[in-house]
Amino acid sequence: MSGNPYPLGLRLAGRRVVVVGGGAVATRRVPALLDAGALVFLVAPELTPALRAHVDAGRLHWAPRRFAPDDLDGAWLVHVAIDDPLAAASVSAAAAERRIFCVRADDRAAATAWTPAVTRHGPVTVAVLGGGDPRRAMAVRDAVRALLEVREGALTTPGTPSGTGPGRVALVGAGPGDPELITVKGWRLLTEADVVVADRLVPGLLLDELRADVELVDASKIPYGPSRAQEEINRILVDRALAGKFVVRLKGGDPYVFGRGGEELLACAAAGVPVTVVPGVTSSIAAPAAAGVPVTHRGVAHEFTVVSGHVAPDSPASLVRWDALAGLRGTLVVLMGLKNLAAITATLLAHGKPARTPAAVVQEATTGAQRVLRSTLGAVAADVAAVGLRPPAVVVLGDVVDALAGAGPAGIPGSGSGSTGQG
Ligand code: SAH
After folding, report:
1. What angle do CA 118, 123, 124 make, to 5 degrees?
2. Which of 22, 53, 135, 328 is the most buried (most CB within 10 A)?
């Protein structure tokens, strides 16, 4: 076939697309078709487990047999994902007869359509054809993706230049500390922001990479006490959004885990400002993981409970039933617990939690400054004081602390792994 390929974006929503074959190639092709809203009709005697899961979930129709030419009746596109050249050629012939474009995994030259290498960035799709060499297409796609990840601000939705039209707010979880632990979506929104309102616990490196014209509001520098400061943050979010800006409220970990994200959402909603929430990797799970502690483990813990320790157990303001927590077998994760750690552990002990319960404390998890202390419920408060651990830190109590002991270096790759005594 000669001539350059003619690029198109096919709008497949509600349109029949036939996939012939149920193996690895079909498994890779089907998700993008489903994402496009296509009515996928899969013809194959057998399926991979992943394809079977799509069938079981009712996402596509499966004909458990070999291809028959009239499978293509009413179709807009066909993907041939089988190795048998004769069978594939018969699909091609049936497609040509019906003037249906036919993608051939087995034979590019025989195909009437080629699938590009793709990278998606919000509303933008970049598709690359490699002139017959799929590896070249992928290499170019990877280069474009890398470029776009750095300069994504340039892709802000056209037609809504900042400062005009209605603004909006995104509450974005920044993850626990390692800048690579933000989500792909969170990162994209961050690169699109006009205004970023960041917490103290937000990884500094994420902010380093913002465009120079982005207004950065450091929420931890707002004077006044905590409740006035929160009102002030709410006011900044609403004011900037009403002025037409896209405001990213960047919060440590997950926005809804002790992050006051709900209050900010309510404040925006009250002012009629649209809000998107992007969940984040929470330190309550990531900090234990970074220290080699899984919050659940088969045969060890079937539950984990996350609790804030910022209010002392005997305070009338406490909303936590420490007595009940003492009776749980599973994992207990305490955030903001260092200041009250002696009172918390004493309360758990008093209500019968065994003093030998394994404990770990992880300070500044997933950063280069990470410190890990291993101890027991009975000794952890004194040990923390002795080695001088400081907030932010997560305390994890339960048998899971020892579940992976002896497995060698553990933790989240790329994170710091400085360790503090107490084997
Ligand atoms: N929304 C956050 C938690 C905010 S409360 C999240 O989902 O992670 C703040 C507390 O989180 C800190 O006092 C500390 O207990 C914990 N924390 C946050 N980041 C941490 C980190 N990198 N290492 C250890 N603890 C962390």
Report:
1. 40
2. 22
Amino acid 396 reads V
Residue 245 known to be catalytic: no
Query: Would residue 221 show up in a list of annotated catalytic residues for this protein?
Result: yes
> Where is 63: in which H helix or E strand?
strand 61-63
CB of 283 within 6 A of ligand 1: the answer is: yes
Architecture of the domain delimited by 16-115? 3-Layer(aba) Sandwich (3.40)
304 lines ligand 1 (CB under 6 A): no
What global pTM score does this model have? 0.80
Instruction: Please tell me the distance from the alpha carbon of residue 300 to that of residue 289, in angstroms, as a whole number.
Output: 16
Give the pLDDT band (50/70/90) at residue 411: low
H-assigned helices in 22-84? 24-35, 49-56
Residue appearing with tokens 């830190």: 393
Q: How far apart are CA 284 and CA 291, in angstroms?
A: 12
Class of domain 163-281: alpha beta
pLDDT band (50, 70, 90) for residue 408? low
**E runs forming strands in 257-344:** 275-278, 304-308, 331-335
pLDDT tens-place string over residues 169-192? 999 999 999 999 999 999 999 999
In whole angstroms, give the CA distance from residue 222 to residue 135.
51
| Four-residue CA torsion sign, 192, 195, 201, 207 | positive
DSSP string for residues in 338-401: STTHHHHHHHHHHTT--TT-EEEEEESTTSTT-EEEEEETTTHHHHHHHHT--SSEEEEESGGG
Q: Report whether CATH 3.30.950.10 matches the domain 284-413.
A: yes
Start-end ranges of CATH 3.30.950.10 in the chain?
A: 284-413
The number of the ligand 1 atom at minimal distance from the alpha carbon of 367 is: 22
201 lines ligand 1 (CB under 6 A): yes
CATH 3.40.50.720 spans which residues of the chain?
16-115
- For Cα atoms 183, 149, 6, give the angle at the middle one, nearest 5 degrees: 115
Average pLDDT, the chain: 91
Q: Is 91 in the pocket of ligand 1 (CB under 6 A)?
A: no
Annotated catalytic residue, options 70, 208, 213, 221: 221
Region(s) of the chain under CATH 3.40.1010.10: 163-281
